[in-house]
Structures are given as structure tokens and as C-alpha cells.
Amino acid sequence: MPGSSIGTLFRLTTFGESHGAAIGGIIDGFPSNFPVDLEAIQAELDRRRPGQSSVSSPRKESDQVRFLSGLYESKSTGAPIAFIIENTNQRSQDYDHLKSVFRPSHSDFSYQQKYGIRDHRGGGRSSARETACRVVAGAMAQQFLEAQGIQIRAFVDQVGPLKISRPQDLQKLDRKQIDAHPVRCPEPELAKKMEALILDLQQAGDSVGGSIFCRAEGVPAGLGEPVFDKLHAELARAMLSINATKGFELGSGFQAAQMTGSEHNDAFLEGGQTATNNSGGIQGGISNGMPIYFRVAFKPVATILREQQALNSELKAQQLKAEGRHDPCVVPRAVPIVEAMTAITLLDFYLMQRAYQ
Amino acid sequence: MPGSSIGTLFRLTTFGESHGAAIGGIIDGFPSNFPVDLEAIQAELDRRRPGQSSVSSPRKESDQVRFLSGLYESKSTGAPIAFIIENTNQRSQDYDHLKSVFRPSHSDFSYQQKYGIRDHRGGGRSSARETACRVVAGAMAQQFLEAQGIQIRAFVDQVGPLKISRPQDLQKLDRKQIDAHPVRCPEPELAKKMEALILDLQQAGDSVGGSIFCRAEGVPAGLGEPVFDKLHAELARAMLSINATKGFELGSGFQAAQMTGSEHNDAFLEGGQTATNNSGGIQGGISNGMPIYFRVAFKPVATILREQQALNSELKAQQLKAEGRHDPCVVPRAVPIVEAMTAITLLDFYLMQRAYQ
Amino acid sequence: MPGSSIGTLFRLTTFGESHGAAIGGIIDGFPSNFPVDLEAIQAELDRRRPGQSSVSSPRKESDQVRFLSGLYESKSTGAPIAFIIENTNQRSQDYDHLKSVFRPSHSDFSYQQKYGIRDHRGGGRSSARETACRVVAGAMAQQFLEAQGIQIRAFVDQVGPLKISRPQDLQKLDRKQIDAHPVRCPEPELAKKMEALILDLQQAGDSVGGSIFCRAEGVPAGLGEPVFDKLHAELARAMLSINATKGFELGSGFQAAQMTGSEHNDAFLEGGQTATNNSGGIQGGISNGMPIYFRVAFKPVATILREQQALNSELKAQQLKAEGRHDPCVVPRAVPIVEAMTAITLLDFYLMQRAYQ
Amino acid sequence: MPGSSIGTLFRLTTFGESHGAAIGGIIDGFPSNFPVDLEAIQAELDRRRPGQSSVSSPRKESDQVRFLSGLYESKSTGAPIAFIIENTNQRSQDYDHLKSVFRPSHSDFSYQQKYGIRDHRGGGRSSARETACRVVAGAMAQQFLEAQGIQIRAFVDQVGPLKISRPQDLQKLDRKQIDAHPVRCPEPELAKKMEALILDLQQAGDSVGGSIFCRAEGVPAGLGEPVFDKLHAELARAMLSINATKGFELGSGFQAAQMTGSEHNDAFLEGGQTATNNSGGIQGGISNGMPIYFRVAFKPVATILREQQALNSELKAQQLKAEGRHDPCVVPRAVPIVEAMTAITLLDFYLMQRAYQ
């Protein structure tokens, strides 16, 4: 497990650095004979693309995905599906001043300690650019899952102190509604305030954190494998493999710590549904047929346009003021990534359950 | 991945139901020629054992571990280390009334949906009794890690509304101090209040949630594998594989969502340490040499001695009032489990890093 | 992959040394709700047991298997199925003289080099006693496969120079016929000669090699995963994980090297069967619906009652004459092991194919 | 395990069909900070390339490999190393007549049964063209292994009835000597006869099988993981994952079946080496420090220019005479593939052993 792969039956392996020739991946285990909508995949990539709005990095990458294998007359053949996204708008010289600098709260230092060598350009392998590959695989997984009646929707429920108090109470949302505002928060008034906050902080050379809420509906009961491969454990792993994440909570989450059993328990309704859904759709690590929902916390972007204490290669202190093109807040662009990682995880368990049933 | 194994190079596979003949496991990949302290392993088991204090289930299990292989003259041979813990105090008849009942917020229903069959006695495979096996493997892993200078300490930082505000600020703690009070909260006054709250709720036939804080010190920089096997992603997975968990946060965690970059970034000190540690000791999924710390949220125990809406096997509503022996709050006994899962995860990554270095 | 596990969806993990407290294993991923015939499993173990006949080691092990989990009212629950076989007839003192001796063509030396420590008693972990655990898991897998119409039969086709020339031409055989003679060769006259050869060599303090032929009928087309997890590649791996094996060949095997394409190609019959079956039932790593057959070569048992050049712990030469209880030829007892490993491999691929279909 | 990956710590995942846009792969887990000789990798690819000699397919593929990631200033960074080889000389129309035909002894039928869909052009995913990707990864692995003193050399030891009787007795060979003749048999007179045989059969529209001998020298004792991941079991799996293979034998191989223990045992010499090497350098699944050697059998190429009984898509009989460009014998071009798979397997175990030591 050198780290570039996820999944057992549905498996994604990615490659590529921010400023290399290309990024891409290999999708293995996608069910055969399924008609794949390539335009819909590109549309998902466009939702993640930098430069798409007022609140995202101005780096202009067209992020055109090209498929190299595994498809024949637009259907999956069962063979691995490889794809690449060429890097076109690299400005590696922007990073020359970082060649021998470890930036605070970046992975420069930990990578150097681990590998003894580092591709410093744009964060190299640790760049969030890698997540574009996840969106490709996730979009494909979503197409298959939707054909089975499973729908995944994520949105921004918090930027800095601005938040939706109980996002789980929002009714069914469509993507159009979520994408209507560039912040991807479905409450229009709050979205405007979030955007203003982000732009104010960007103006001040600063950045801000946030969180994303995600819900999967139509997931049949029975997905997840006890005891170590519990469904929410794997969802947590998938989410916390996304850049800049700091926390994951399922259903009632950290609120559960201050509740009593009589408040928290989800009373059954006849037929198997429950009156409340504090469990978040998973009991004992296995889906119970209710909607699955969770939240993911993201830290503020580490690159800020202010003087900070960094280190040089001799580990001596050095003042640093960042340059380059950066997002002031990652959560709007992270929405399709959260959806993608959810789909990748659910499809793996879906296939697993088919094996055992 | 049918779910009963965790780890790649250091791997634990467990078996056993709450009311079967025995529980146990196989530890594979433990480094050879290491002197194993078997009494220290039993001591860790005793910390998890039911019936140990005022705030734990009165089920009396001696939880004596017996090793069957992999040790020769008290040293590890490199062969798999198998162990069993016989179940001695089963009162399966306590569960007869549950044979055809699905309890709310238990895994009865989801297991039945998944497998089409269910061992209803004491929760069967989904019982937290399984975690005793994790404690055995974790205790062994901890012995090896401590010999490399790595120390893991967990404690209760929240029970219901009672909480330590910044547990990361507590100085180095020893186990004696943590175990001094049965609640395993290192702040004596707060511990007493927590105990009172738990006992009050128990008296009222109710239960309560809580959370656990864990810190690993002495972890060298370089552990963790980008991009999917990030160290905190695997820690999250390990923690959320523990029964009753609802959330995981690393370092600043969900607080990060409301912070700005200038607040959150950890400025470097000369030599590679950082002035603050919002990152929680991990950058880009790789340890950076600072202490690793995180929190895990636990829901209130689902079994409460009150009437609740359950289902019968035809999925019709049925009123249910629990019987049997149960913990009113799981976090005190979960402390050694959190430590064990941390050790299991870190040892796997420690061996991995040795392979690549 | 520390080595004690095999399989992805159907997974066996084993433990135990020849002269430890017990051997055993954990079977994970066995389909739930299947009625398991425990007596039939014990019967398979009895076929592998030492002391069963004139041509096997006189070590008397009752090899009684005891199941600890995963079964409820004789049905599989989907939970891991653990089992142990206690070691009862250990005569470890027989091995005292080997404590500091590396025997020729045993794994004493390579284990010591690998682990820096060694349990010398009876070969420790490297003892073929471990294969009893495979027979347990394999017998369970066979029960499931037989319910799907898949039948696996192995027999001895060679002992020393005595061999069946084209074992693939033998018609359907039942176990009774194969087990009628202790050598487990279905041709009675040849079996008698084999027995005589084995007993002569044993008398002379020597041992002899042999080979086993195995055929699986009723395997549906489509099992196996290209390109690295080809069905015959995994069968080869499974077979060569059995002690004392030196070679594996599928279908035409090494004969294929001297054939021409026009001789070797299997012409199709209408409907999808083939006129000949040089392919051995697998094309491109995927079963084609024809019977799968292969041969496995076993070396002569390394323990012989003659003076041989061994090494002491300082790697100086030392003459050694073996004592203890040993088989003069392993193939008769290896027949159920080959069947078990075939079943374990086929069930894993069978479940895999269910996932993708 | 959908099949496109091999290895645990050093892992290769490949993609691509014979007549798709490109083939390629992702190498994950290659040690960081190692200077990679890209020209030497291309040179290995050239040894496998079609159209290189009198005895190989006239398809003209330049097989230029292009690296997309994981290298920085010609050193490995620890990030995954992706590469592609564009397909340039596709003549897919050559295969139009096969769109609805299942060829005998090809994987057309088994793939169709498995996936319900098939890319018929040039064998699609089942084409041996995929092995070019293995050569790239294997060449990289070999560079690292050679820096540790491990050398791998393979050659053709049999074509049809023409064979070297004891290839293990040949002294150290260099590649130049092996490649001196296009058949890659190091005995010049025999090589000439082999070539003549191949050309005669080709002339007659037929093909012929063969076998390859491979030896790895300098492998330290201790590689391999008991009990299921024995070194020779994994070598067998790796070899039998190569197209057209039918058998694998380690050391004495199938000869062992007819030997006695006193003939077969390898007496020790002082210091740990052995007088003979029937074991083939592996005892109990673990390398013992002696040279590792094995043989791999290949069937004759299934495509022959003669009328054969094939099937149409309704599984009715249909006469077929092949067209297209094909090798009359695969073993000369398979030599670098066998070396590559050996290197891939050994590097994985080499890293594994570093983890545990």
C-alpha cells in the first residue's frame, strides 16, 4: 500500500504532480457493458476546475480528460479504464523561490523527511490538483450508482463562522440549486454572506476554512463489512484522504457526545425506517436503508499572502510571503470531490455486497 | 476484504461473538525476536474488562488471554501470534426475548438485512466484546513502539455536556494518573462530575455519550503514505471501526472550519518543530515529528432501560424495554481501545516506512 | 502481506506450529446462511491425518477440529469462522538434538536467516502440519462449490518413476475409488507398485517424490481476473504454497513446449465446448467452461534416516542422521490438501465474478 | 483485485488494449531518490518489441515509452511513476473478420462469457502487447536490484523438441551472449537449429512452443513470506500471469517427482552454501542465498495460418483461417518479460524484508 490506490473491487490508482506533464489514473473493476456518459464526466471535472468563479484560484486549467482504454463504442469492457489530464497552465517559475523553503502548514517538510527528495513545484504530488482524478473516477461511479437508484449530493454548509445549523433537515436538493451560487451553499442569503467573507479575507491576503455536508439517498441496507471495514470508517478514510481535511462526523457526529440514549436512539417505524436519523443511515458499520449523511471539516488554505515564519533547507528560520495562484477557501471546489469519494466508496461496497449475497 | 482484518504489514484478524465459545485473533507481521511482556498485555485487557468499576457493565468476564502460537521462550518468532479469550460469563437466556426483535439504534436490523441470518445473543459479532481482541494486538504493538520511543496516551475529555476545553494543552500524562479515577478523565474534579452524571442517568434507565482524546508522542517524521493512505485517514478509519463512534477530528478538527489561515498556520521554529500544532502532527497525510493528537466522538449506549419502539421480524412495531447488563457510558472502557487502534495503525506505517527508507 | 492469509473475498488466515499448543485459522467471507456439514469437514481432515496408513508418518494426531465462531445452529452467519486443532501427540524431545542444527533441504537455515530466531521443534511454522488448517477451510469451500455444481477431485498420478501417462483421460472418479488404496492412485495395479516402492525406500531409510493430478468439473466460464490475477496463476500460487512442491502445470503443461500450434489448439465444438482440452479449461486466465485440470510436483521428503552433511549454528559442517516420525512420501496425504487449495482459490474467484456480473 | 495490479509494496498497475490509443501503467512504491536510467528502460523495451528479428511478428511498433510523473531531475521522488506507450501501428481492419468469431485456443470466448462484451481488435486486453508495460516496470526494478547486487538473467532453453538438458549448469551469462542470436538461446549451435525449426513451421503456417530458464543471483537469504506468500509461489503466479504460459518449475521441478530424498537433498557446505542446488535457491518458501532458478513453459502461439474450427457469435461452427501479423514462437521475445516479472516479484519481497528486519 504505497498510497496511490483506493478500493478493493472498484479500485482507483492515480498519478501526477501539479507541475508535471500530466495527471491521471487507472480505474479497475468498473462493471462491464455499462454505457458511460463521457460528457457528464467532463462536466463534473468542470465543477472542480480552478478559475471557474470569483472564489477560486485564477489558475486556468482546461482540465480536459482523455480516456486511453477500457471503453469500446462508449461502453465499459471490463478492462481497466485509464485517463489523463494534461497540465497546460503550469507556471513552475512561480515556485522557484520555494525550491529550498519549507512553508508552514504545507507538506513540504514532511515529504522531504519521508522521501529525502521533493518536487517543490506547486506542491508536487501533495497538490490538490490530484483530486481531479478522483472526480473522473467518482463521476463514473456515480453514473453506475444512479442507475441503481443511489443519489449523492454534497454542498457547503459552513464557511468560517457562517453555517447552516441542521443541514440534514434540508429537503432533496438538485445540483442546479447547489451550483446556482459559486460558493455551492444552497441557502442563497447565506451563500452571499459566505462569498463576501471569502473575498474580504482574500483581499486581506488571508484564507478561511469551511465544511461540506454530504447525503447519499437510495443506498440499500446491507452495505459495509464488519468489523474493520465498517461503511462509515471507510467513508471517513476516503474523506480524510482529501487535501486539507481535519474532521469527519457521521449523523449526529460530535453532537452525540453530549446526548443521552433516550434522545439519540432512532425509534423504528413499521417497515424498517426510523422516525429520526441520528445514526446517519449506518448501524454497526452497515447501511440500514435510511439516508446516509456526514460532514467533513476543511482547514483554511495554508498559502496566504502574508509574511510567515518558514524554514530553509538547513532548517533555519526564514521569512516567507507567498506568491502564485491560490484559492482563498477550498470548500466550494471540494464539493464535487466529496461526492466523488463518496461514490468511489459506495460502489466498492455495493460490488462487495453483490459478491456475498 | 470481508472485514475482519486490519493492516498491511502488521495485520490483525479477529473472530468471535459475544456469546459464542470464545473470541480471539491472529496477529501477523509482528517483528521477530522481540521479547513480549505477556503480563502487560493482560493488564491492558483488564483496563477494558467489564465489571471493573462503578461506571461499567456488571457482566463479569475474567478476559484471560491465552496465546497459542508465534512465541518461543517469550520472544516473537515471526510466525503469526494467535490468541483466544474464552467467554465464561454468558447469560444467553438474557437475550431470548430479542430473538425476533430488532432494537432501535442497534445493528440487529442492518445485520439481518445484510446476512439474512443473525446470532441475536448479546449482539453477536457486532458486540463491543470483539474489541478485547484489538486491545491484545494493540498492547503488543505498543510494546514494540515504546521500544522505538513512541508513546500513546488516551483519556476521556467529554461525557455529555461536561468537557475539557483544550485537552491538547494538558502536559504529558501517565496511565496511573488517567486511571486514578474510573471515568479515566485526568482532571479529578471534572471526573467526579462525570461519574455523578453517568450514575444519575443510569439510575434513570438512560445512557450518555462522550469523547476521547488521544496523543502519540515520539512519532518520527515520515509516517503515512500519500495520497489515499494518509496517516490521519487511516487513523480515522481505525477509530471509526470502534463500536459506537460517530466522529473523528485531527488537531484543530472541526474548529478549523471557522478559522482563518493566519490563525491556523503553524509557524516553524528553527530545527523543524512548530510554534503551534493545529495540524495535529500530520501534514499532507505524513507525520511531521510533532505530537499527533485527535478526538473521537462516541454516541450514548443504545441499550437503555426504557420503553422504546422496536420492530418484530415481520417489521411490525413492538414496544421493548431492555434487560441484560450494559454500560451506561462507553468512553471510560474505550480508552484502552482507542490506544490499541492507534498503536495498530502506527506500527503498520512504521514498518512500511522502514521498507521504503 | 506477512504471509499467513490467502484470498480476497474468501480469505483464510492460519496460525500454529507443529509443536505449539494448537494450530488453527480464521475463515472470513464465507457466504452467510449456508448449512455447514461439520462431520464432512472432519472426514476431510481424517484423509490428511498422519498415522492413517502404511505409507504415512506414524505420528498419531487425532486432529479433531473445534469451531469457535461464525456458526449459529449449524449455519454460517457471515461472521468469521474460527477453528482450532489442538496438538496432542507432540514429542518435542525428539527434536532436542536439532536445536542448533540446520538440516539439509529443510527450511531451518532460511527461517533463521529471515527471522534471527527459530522454533526448531518439528519444523515450527514451516511444518506441513499447518496444511490441516487449509483442509478445514477447503472442505467448507468445497461444500459451497458443490452446491453450485462444482466438483474437485485429486489423485496421485506419480510416485518416483511410476506414473499414469495421461491422467487427464481418466473418466469421472469418485473419492471412494481414489481412497480405496492408501496411495490414492486410482489405478489399482499401479497403486500397489507405488506402495511397494515407498515401503522399500522407507526400509532403506530413504524417501521418494511424486505428483498429484487435480480436476475441477462444473466450473462456469468467466472465473479469473486478467491480467495479473489469472485463474491458473492463482492456482499455481495456491499449489506452490503447499509444502514440498516444486512445479505446477496446467493442461498440456510442459508438454506444450514441444508441440506445434496445429497440434495444441483446441478446436471448438458447437455450443462452446472444445474437441480437445490442452488448455486445461482456462483461456487467457479465465475459465472457459471445460474441465480445469493441472498437475503438481512434490519433492521427496527431506528427512531421511541416513547420515547427511548438516550445519551447526556456527555454520560449521556436522554429520546428522534424522530421528523422529516422518512420511516416506507426501503425495498420498497431500491429495486432500491439493483439493482444499483448489476449492479455496475457486471460491474466491466465484464470489469475485458474482460481484462484477 | 480486479486483476490489473501486482505487488504489495512495489506495485504495478497496467492498462491498455492492443488496438486502443495507448498502453501504459503506474508504478507505485519504487524507492525514492534513486537515479533512474531511462535509456536502459527503453533498451529493455526494444528487446521485447515486435519486428525486431526473423523470428518475431512483423508488426512494427516503435514502443517508445514516455514517463508522466514520479521523476524529478531523473531521480525517483517516491510519487507514483506513470508511463504510456502510444499504439502507432494498429491495423485494426485486419481484425474486422473476427468481430463475431471466437478463435480456438484464444481468450475470445472466455472474455465474452465473463464480460458480455469484447474489444475484438488484436485480442484487446488479452493481447500480449500488455507485457510491454511489465518490461518497463521490471527494468526499473532491475536497476534497483542490481544496485543491491542482485542479477537476473533469462534465456530460451527449449523450442519444440530442441532443448538444453541441464540449463542450470550453464555458467554466468551476460545479456550480450544471450541476445547474440535472435532466438535468445545461449548455445549457438542449438540456437541456429531452433531458428530453422521456427522458420520452417512458420512457412508451414504453423507455430511452436518453448520454454525459458531464468536465474537470479545475489539474492540474500530471507526473502519470501510463509506460508501462503512463499517466494516460489509468488514467482509462479507472476510467471503464469504472462500470456501463453502453461507451467512453472523451481529447481529440480517435475524431475523431483521421480527422485529419492538421498538424491535430491542439497548437502550443506561450511558457511551456508550447498553442494548441489536442487532446491533452486528457496527452502520453505524463503530464499536461502543460493541462486534462484526456474523454468517456464509456453504453449505454441494459437494463431496459425491454417483452417480451424471456430465459433460464430451464435456458437455455431465456422471455419477460420487466420490473417494478421503474428509470432511463430513467443519465447525469444518473452525472455525480457520473464526477467521483468522476476524483478517485480523480488523487489516486492526485498522491500517487505526491509520492513521486518
Commentary on this structure:
The structure is a homotetramer of 357-residue chains. The first copy, chain A, has 357 residues and is of the alpha+beta class. Chain A has a single domain, classed as Chorismate synthase AroC (Chorismate synthase, AroC fold, 4-Layer Sandwich). In chain A, the strands form 5 sheets. In chain A, strands 1-2-3-7-4 form a 5-stranded antiparallel sheet, with helices on one face. A 5-stranded antiparallel sheet of chain A has the order 10-9-11-15-12. Chain A has a 3-stranded antiparallel sheet with strand order 8-16-17, with no helix packed on it. In chain A, strand 9 and strand 10 form a beta hairpin. The longest helix of chain A has 26 residues. Strand 12 of chain A pairs antiparallel with strand 12 of chain B, so a sheet runs across the interface.
Summarize the structure.
4 copies of one chain form a homotetramer. Chain A has about 350 residues and is of the alpha+beta class.
H and E order of chain A: EEEHEEEEEHHEEHHEHEHEEEEEH
| Shape designation of chain A | globular
Quaternary structure type: homotetramer
Number of strands of chain A: 17
Question: Which strand order spans the largest sheet of chain A, edge to edge or round the barrel?
Answer: 1-2-3-7-4
| Average of the residue pLDDT scores of chain A | 94
Number of separate domains of chain A:
1
What summary fits the major beta sheet of chain A? Answer: 5 strands, antiparallel
Second rung of CATH, namely the architecture of chain A: 4-Layer Sandwich
CATH homologous superfamily classification of chain A: Chorismate synthase AroC
Structural category of chain A is alpha+beta
Helix fraction of chain A, binned, reads 25-40%
- SS field, number of helical segments of chain A: 8
List low-confidence stretches of chain A.
none
Termini separation of chain A: 28 Å
Sheet-strand content of chain A, in percent, reads: 15-25%
Radius of gyration of chain A, Cα only, in angstroms? Answer: 21 Å
CATH topology of chain A: Chorismate synthase, AroC fold
Name of the CATH class of chain A:
Alpha Beta
User: Largest interface, by Cβ-Cβ below 8 angstroms: which chains and how many residues each?
Assistant: A-B, 113 and 113 residues
